[in-house]
Amino acid sequence: MGMDEKQAAKRLEELRDEIRKHDRLYYDEAAPIISDREYDRLYKELVALETQFPDLVTPDSPTQRVGGKPLKAFEQVSHLIPMLSLDNTYSEEEVKNFYTRIQRLLPNENIPVVIEPKVDGVAVSLVYENGRLRQAATRGDGNVGDNITQNIRTIRSVPERLRGAAPKLLEVRGEVYMDRKGFEELNEERKKEGLPQFANPRNAAAGSLKQLDPAIVAKRPLGIVLYGTGAIEGVDVDLHSEIFPLLKKLGLPVTERWWVANSVEEILDAIHELDCIRHKFVYQTDGAVVKVNSFAQRERLGFTAKSPRWAIAYKYAAERVETRLKNIVIQVGRTGILTPVAVLEPVFVSGSTVGRATLHNEDEIKRKDIRIGDTVVIEKAGEVIPAVVEVVKSKRPRDAKPFDFAAHVHGKCPVCGSPIQRDPQFVAWRCENLQCPAQTTRRVEFFAARGALDIETVGGIVADKLVERGLVREPLDLFELKTEQLAKLNLGTEEAPRLFGEKNATKATNAIGRARTLPLSRWLFALAIPDVGKTTAMELARFHNTIDHVAHSELLRGVLEYHEKREGGESSNEIAERLIKAGFAKPSKSKMGKGGIVTEVGPVVAQSVLDFFASTGGKRILRRLNQLGIHPKSEKVSAKKAAELPMAGKTFVLTGTLPSMTREEATEKIEALGGRVTGSVSKKTDYVLAGSEPGSKFDRAKELGIRVLDEAAFRKML
Fold this sequence. Notes:
Low-confidence stretches: none
Largest sheet: 7 strands, antiparallel
Distance between the termini: 64 Å
CATH class of the largest domain: Alpha Beta
Number of strands: 24
Number of helices: 27
CATH superfamily of the largest domain: DNA ligase/mRNA capping enzyme
Oligomer: single chain
Structural class: alpha+beta
């Protein structure tokens, strides 16, 4: 006999309470009391009852953690109290200086500090009102972040309701992470599906939180650890060390280990102790955070422009270990470049076992004199990506021979057996066969990527299988695929078939149809022409109407002729005037230029583009495009209109990781407003947009006195 609505409501409340209890035991206390099978049985009963009585579904039900409909974009929300970043140091001496400094600022006072793990995740803020989760946001620029409430709700260790007597308002700060085991399993799964693997757990967590579809986020092994507060109403807390027991009592996951210290010696002891145990945590840690314990003392210490004076983050040096290099294997990339990879005697480093490491290129191997059989020192760059740092020469076997790249692969591509050539510009060897299967799959993936023709439905394993089954031999074959062919595509094996299906096939053919109408710049980038990145593709599209105009460009020929005449000591004035008149060049302001010109693209790019379209493969691409009725047109704006755009004539360089947007997104915003993005800093650079952990470009900008923007300043400029 079935339940009536009253009985169902009672049973639903029992099931929800029971499941929440088991979630807490499993995720917060790591002490489950039932098996996974029993948990699944309870969950299935809850789903079945909610399906039968949809009016009884509540927003805080465990079944709603997969979120609602996919979002079109993230809403921007303000933090109740700004989320500031901390000053970083790799030096114990600077930790001592930090403590000496705060003692000087608060003379004759005892200043206890708390030491806790620096979690390598994504900084977030959660707001609870009267015990219920109201909002979750990323750090963003510290004042404004992305509203990721739906995505945070998918993390089972985040309670929808706080336990016990909750404060009227509680803003908690912490890090969303991807646990080590889950990260490895996710990458293994992506590898099987032919999808690009995440570089490290932090990137994986950040990428997950940026998903607009909460259902995808729900499948990712995300966790959260909370370690601080922002705005609070309804509870008095005077010390940071009181936060941990308070949050735990409310059912929130907190830092598992922390220390209180009253001297420099005690601080360093805690940092060393944490270093010994941190690899046992489920999340990545890359350092220790030292914070003044008393909120009253924090208030008096205050802030600098960017960070609090009462805290500092100490980062551990990357762990290095020795192991034997058993072999060097060669992989082939989408442009045909051959990349060497070290096969290692498996070794445990920074919390995981490493069996492979990148060797970059032939010159890197020669510079470090790396030989098969050597004992090498391995370091995890950023504690995730393994790299060979150096060779232990004293342990070298007598018969170890210098590595000869070309001889190792017998002068042939290891995938297709075609001849290979040394490419001096890229310091690399390249497979010359454009039909090489290794290149075909990667070229199809690149061609279909979001930044190119945006046919992402045919990336990864789909691209692999299209090539493997002979349906696609080159990227343009995608435009001859029929929905019926795609629907029947087997993504599995003969023994365990897995069809692409009608729904996915329709999505793919619709995306392929849309790609036909994309502008010239996107097509020039998608064709993977050597030396042509996104910025160069946009520059070429500004000055050419069609792809045929680019292939037979008088402007590009003019660039080559100009440089040939200059080098030969002949007069190049006539060509220079022609290029300036076309807007493709400007008179050089450099004293070294001696009346010369600066062209929109240099002679290397010009030669590369003309060679590409003059080659057999390039001519075939032009013929196929005509046969397929695809005629990409330039999205040129008039010179007058371009000059009126707010960033017209401004050159930007990007460096570091921005808090809430990718470099690609920032580049699109700059270019849409008439600006340019280049790869290196020079006197002609107007702005450097810098995120966290900027590289040498940041230092170069400081040297040249170029204005450096953080994301907040960039957003104001937009």
